[in-house]
């Protein structure tokens, strides 16, 4: 797991020594059993994301293996705040999520789980964690975000996200060189994403060139480029209706320019 630096750095910063189970592309139950042989070891699991390589680990199975050795198991849920009940159902002792992602609070983290383990985390206030504690403003922001989340109709919210994706895919049907489709969120989040496959017709640019052209425009549109194939994956959750229309218009404009002139949108923009 690497988001600019290895997650192993964060483990060391917390005062622990990382013991890596498995390899970059896979981690089997046997790999976990070997890594958990030391009784001083805790099991830290990550919800698979676009930054993780290889096949995801079965979280419930991994938690069970740790508990068979009387070791605690923690799940780094990152942006999975809507799946907290599901992640806790694995039996994990702690689930960690970011408050500033879909909860939309100021930057902070949430620790949910067994009371003794949550209380043990307070020991960090006496060590390195003291320098990184959440501010009073962030704490109030998190409480407000949690209050708002409790009032949210999740079913209606998911339906709204589905409508966004369906509408966006339909709008892309007329753009030469792009094949749009709906895809489940690769991290298991409760919404779908738009998958844009760049096809080699009409000299349409590569996915990377399209992403660069979108960034260079006005307004600047930033999209993720974490796929190996010639495609882009778009998450529409934070976008308003007006913003969705602007993105569609920009992609359509770039497609028309590429079709008519036979140049990449990035080149056209600079000219």
Radius of gyration in whole Å, from Cα? 22 Å
Order of helices and strands: HHEHEHEEHHHEEHEHH
CATH topology of the largest domain: Aspartate Aminotransferase, domain 2
Average pLDDT metric: 85
Q: Which segments are poorly predicted (pLDDT under 50) over 5 or more consecutive residues?
A: 262-271
Q: How is the main sheet built? A: 4 strands, mixed
Account of the protein in words:
Helix 7 packs parallel to helix 9. This protein has two domains: 145 residues, Aspartate Aminotransferase, domain 2, CATH 3.40.640; 117 residues, Alpha-Beta Complex (Aspartate Aminotransferase, domain 1). The longest helix is centred in the C-terminal third of the chain and has 21 residues. By secondary structure, it is α/β, with parallel strands linked by helices.
Summed up, what is this model?
This protein is α/β, with parallel strands linked by helices and 271 residues long. Helix content is 39%, strand content 14%.
Attribute tags:
single chain, 271 residues, alpha/beta, Aspartate Aminotransferase, domain 2, Aspartate Aminotransferase, domain 1, four-stranded mixed sheet, three-stranded antiparallel sheet, 10 helices, 39% helix, 14% strand
Protein topology:
Layout: H1 7-13, H2 29-35, E1 43-46, H3 59-68, E2 73-78, H4 84-88, E3 94-98, E4 109-113, H5 115-120, H6 136-151, H7 154-172, E5 178-184, E6 192-198, H8 207-216, E7 231-234, H9 241-261, H10 265-270
Parallel strand pairs: 1-2, 2-3
Antiparallel strand pairs: 3-4, 5-6, 6-7
Helix pairs in contact: 7-9
């Amino acid at each position: 797991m690497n988001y600019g630096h290895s997650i192993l750095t964060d483990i060391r910063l917390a005062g622990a020594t990382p013991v890596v189970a498995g390899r970059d592309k896979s981690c089997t139950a046997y790999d976990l059993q070997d890594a958990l042989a030391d009784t001083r070891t805790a099991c830290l699991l990550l919800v698979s994301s676009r930054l993780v390589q290889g096949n995801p680990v079965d979280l419930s199975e991994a938690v069970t293996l740790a508990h068979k050795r009387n070791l605690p198991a923690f799940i780094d849920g990152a942006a999975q705040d809507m799946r907290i009940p599901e992640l806790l159902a694995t039996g994990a002792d702690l689930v960690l999520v970011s408050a500033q992602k879909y909860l939309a609070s100021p930057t902070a983290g949430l620790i949910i789980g067994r009371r003794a383990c949550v209380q043990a985390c307070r020991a960090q206030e006496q060590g390195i964690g003291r320098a990184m504690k959440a501010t009073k403003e962030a704490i109030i922001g998190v409480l407000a975000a949690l209050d708002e989340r409790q009032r949210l109709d999740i079913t209606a919210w998911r339906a709204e996200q589905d409508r966004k994706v369906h509408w966006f895919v339909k709008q892309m049907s007329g753009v030469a060189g792009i094949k749009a489709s709906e895809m489940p969120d690769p991290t298991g989040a409760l919404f779908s994403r738009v998958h844009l496959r760049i096809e080699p017709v009409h000299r349409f640019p590569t996915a990377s060139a399209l992403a660069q052209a979108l960034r260079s425009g006005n307004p600047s549109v930033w999209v993720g480029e974490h796929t190996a194939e010639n495609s882009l994956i778009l998450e529409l959750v934070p976008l308003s209706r007006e913003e969705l229309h602007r993105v569609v218009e920009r992609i359509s404009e770039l497609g028309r320019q590429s079709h008519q002139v036979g140049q990449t949108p990035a080149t056209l923009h600079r000219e």
